[in-house]
What does this fold into?
Amino acid sequence: MISRLTYCEEGFSVVIKDLNAGIGALQNLNNLGLNIGDTIKLLENSRQEGPLSVEFNSREIRIGRELAGKILIETESPVIVTLDQVKVGDIVEVTKMNSAGDIRYRLLDMGLVRGVKLKVIRFAPLGDPIEVKINEFMLSLRLEEARSIEVKILEFGLNGYRSKKRWWTKG
Amino acid sequence: MNKDREILVALAGNPNSGKTSLFNKLVGANQKVGNWSGVTVEKYEGATSHKGFKIKVIDLPGTYSLTTYSPEEVVARNFLVDEKPDVVVNVIDATNLERNLYLTTQLIDIQANLIVALNMYDEVEDQKIIIDHNQLERLFGAHMIPTSTTKNSGIQSVLDHIVDLYTGAIDVKRNKLNFSAHLEYYIEKMVEIFLTDKELSAKYLPRWLAIKLLVNDKAVYDLVRDRSVWTNVNKVLSEAVYKTGNEFNTDTELMLKEERHAFIRGAIKETVRRSNNRKKSTTDLIDSILINRITGLPIFALFMWLIFQLTFSLGEAPMLWIESAFNHLSIYMSSVLPDGMTKSIIVDGIIAGVGGVVVFLPNIMILFLALAFLEGTGYMARAAFVIDKVMHKFGLHGKSFIPMITGFGCSVPAFMATRTLKNESDRITTLLIIPFMSCGAKFPVYVLIAGTFFEQSMAGNVLFGIYLFGVIIALISAKLLKSTFFKGESEPFVMELPPYRMPSVKTLLFQMWHKAAIYLRKAGTIILFAAVLIWFASNFPRSVDIEKYYEDQRLMLELNSEYDNNKRNELKEKLRVKELAEQIEYSIVGRLGHLIEPLVSPLGLDWRLGISLVTGIAAKEIVVSTMGTIYSLGDIDENSAALRERLLANPDYNQAVALSFMVFVLLYIPCFAASIVFHREAGKWKWTFFYIFYTVAVAWLMSFIVYRISLFLLM
Ligand SMILES: Nc1nc2c(ncn2[C@@H]2O[C@H](COP(=O)(O)OP(=O)(O)OP(=O)(O)O)[C@@H](O)[C@H]2O)c(=O)[nH]1
Ligand SMILES: [Mg+2]
It folds into this structure.
C-alpha cells in the first residue's frame, strides 16, 4: 500500500513513489539530490520531531519532517503509528492503548477500544489538540494523549491527491 | 399524599444527551441547558404528577460510565447505586448509539428499573437513520422510547412508562449482559463467595461487585476489602488477572470493556441502518470555516471582541435610561422627604449605592445573552479546542477558558463554571486567577479615573490596557501557581465537539433573565446593606466640636450684612461641604482611612482612596460611591463632573496615582458575594485565605511597580 515516509520504520528500504504536494516540494526534494523513483533506506526516524535521515547512493541525506510527510512510498507491512503522527483525512484503526490513569478509563468508556476506526478530522489552528471522528461523534484530545494510542493506518488522507493529475510529474 | 404513591425517578445518561432538556419538559423547570458536555454539575430535583402518582425526578450530571473518576460522576453513581431510585430513565443521544449504550449496559448490571429514552429522535429522522427499537429492546431488555425534547414528542410516553413500570403494568425484561466464558467463570465464582456475605449482597448486587472488581474499580475495592469474604474473593480475582494476562495477553479490565463494546457493536449492526449518503453535514461545513487552521484564531478573536463591543455599545443607551431614572428618583425623593437623617440615608446612601449598581444591568444582560448563545450553539466547546494550546502553555486546561471569559461579566458565575474541571489543581488554579479577569462592576471605577486623569483620546486605550493587563497577570499567575503549589498533573484534554444546534429563543432569554435576576437580587440585598452601612460609617461618630464650630460660622454668616442672599447661600453651601469633609475625617471611615494610610501611601494613594478600596471589598461599585461620599458629595456617580474636578484639584493626584489606583482595583479581591462563592467552590479555608492574601499581595505589588514606573516615565 501507499504510505508516507514519516510512517516508516528505521532500517527499511523504500521506493519514492510520488509527492503529495505542489511543485515547490518537488523542487525541494530535487535540491536534496532525490527524485521520484529513487530507492532510499531509512536510517533515522524519531517518530516525534526533527528531520529524518535516509541513505541514498551510500550517502546520508537529512529530510525535514514537513517534506518527509509529503513523500509517498510503497510498503507491504501495515503501518502502525501513534495517533499524534497521523495526518488530516487519514482513516485509522486503534490497535493498542498505552494511556494510563483517568484518561485510560475515560477513553475506553468513550469507545476507544481495539478495533475501533477513527477518522482524522483536523488539528486545532495552533497544531494541538487533534480532532477525530470516532463512531458517530467528534472527539478532541491533545497530542500528548494521542501519543499513547497506537493505530494502524487503513487509508491515507491525501488531500484530494488522487483527483489531481499534475502536469509537472513525468508520465 | 400517600407516601408509596411517590415514584423516585433518576435521569441518567452521557453528557449532552439532553437529560436536562427532558427534565425541564417533565417537571416544567428551567434548568440550564447548553450544547456542550458538563453543563449540569450537581443533581437537582423536580416533581410532577401523572395518573395520580407523584413523580419525583432527579436530574443527574452526565457520565460516560458508572465509574468514579470525576466529582460529578461520583454524584451520579452514588445516587444510582446507593439510593436505588424506583425507575431510571436512561437518556440517550440516539444519533450516537455506540457511545451512549455503553452506560446502558452498566445500568443493566446494577439491575435498574430501566427505561431508555432514545432522545434527539428528530435528528435521527433528519439524518435518515432507521432504528429497529423493538429488536433493540429485546437485546437490551429495557423499554426504548423515542423522544425529542425540541419537538416535544415522546414525553407523555415516558411518563406513562414510568408509572406502568412502577405499578407492574409492564415489566422489565432484565437481560443480563453475558461476557465470554473465560470472564463469566470468574464472575460466577466471585458471586458465589459474595452470596455468603448476606449483609453485603443485600446491599449490592454480587454480580456487579464482581464485574467492578475485574475493572479495578477503586470505590468497590474499598467497599469489599474489609469484609471477611475478601480473602477468598481476592484469590479468585488474582487468578482471573493472572490467567487473563497469561492466556489472552491482556488484562481483565480491557477484556471486559472490549466485550461490552463488542456486544453493543453487534446490537447496532443488527438494529441500525444509516443512509449511505456521505454528504457533508452542516456541522462539518460550519467547522471547516470557524475552526480551520487559518481562520480559526482570527474568528475566535473576533467573537471575543464582539462580545465586549456589544456589551458596551448596545448597553450604553439603556444604561443612560436607568441612570436618569435613578436621578429623577433621587431628585423626587429629595423634594418630598423632610431634611434629616432619613432623607440622607435614602438619597445619599440607598439610591446612590443601589442605583450605581443597577445601572450596569443592561451590560450584564447582554454579556450573558452572548455567552448563552455561544454555549447553546456549541461554539464554546470549539473555542476551548482552538485556544487549548495557549492555555496549556500556561498550565491551564482548555476548559478553563469558559470560566475565564465568564469572569469578564461577573466572578460569581465564573467561579461556579469551574466545576466542569475535574482535576482539583486545575480547578483551584482557575478559581484563583478569575479575580484578575476584570469584572463588570470594576468598569465604573475605570471610567471615572481614566476619564478624569487622561485625555478623551487616551482614556479608551487606558481602559483596554487595564483589561489586557488583567489577562496577562491571570496567565502568569496560572503558570506560577502551576509550577509551585499545583505541580500535580493537569487534567487531560478529552472533549467532545457536539454538532451545532440552534438554541431556542426561550432558553436564551430565560438564561439571560435568570442572570439578571441574580444581579438585581444582589443589588437589593448586599449592596443595599453595604450602602447603608457605609453611610453610617461615614456619618458617625460625629464630632460635637466641629458641629458647633460650623454652627457658629453659619450664625455669623447670617448676621453679616455685607452679603446679599445669593452670596450668602453660596458661602453656606461651601461651609456645608467643608463641614461634611471634616466630619468624615472624624467618622469611622475617616479613622479607618488614616489607619491604613501607611499601607497605601507607597502606592501613591491617600487615605481617601485607601478607604474606597476597603469599602470596595463589599462590592466594587461601592468604590465610586464611597469616593463620592468622602469628597462630600453624597450622591456622586462616575459621570459627575464635580467629583472629577475635585479629584483633579487635589495636588497629590496625578496620572501615576490614577494608574496605580486602577491597577489595585483591577487585581485585588472581588466583592464579598464572590468571595463567599469562591469559598464554597474551593471548599477549603486554606484556599480562601490564600485567595485573599494572593489577590491583595499581587494587587499591592503591581500597583507599586506601576506607580513607580509611571512616576519615572510620566513626570
Ligand atoms: N435536536 C435536538 N436537540 C436536543 C434534544 N434534546 C436536547 N437537545 C439539545 O442538546 C443539548 C444538550 O442538552 P442538555 O439538556 O443540556 O443535555 P444534558 O444531558 O443535560 O447535558 P449535561 O448536563 O452536560 O450532561 C442542548 O443544546 C439541547 O438543546 C432533542 O430532542 N433534539
Ligand atoms: Mg444537564
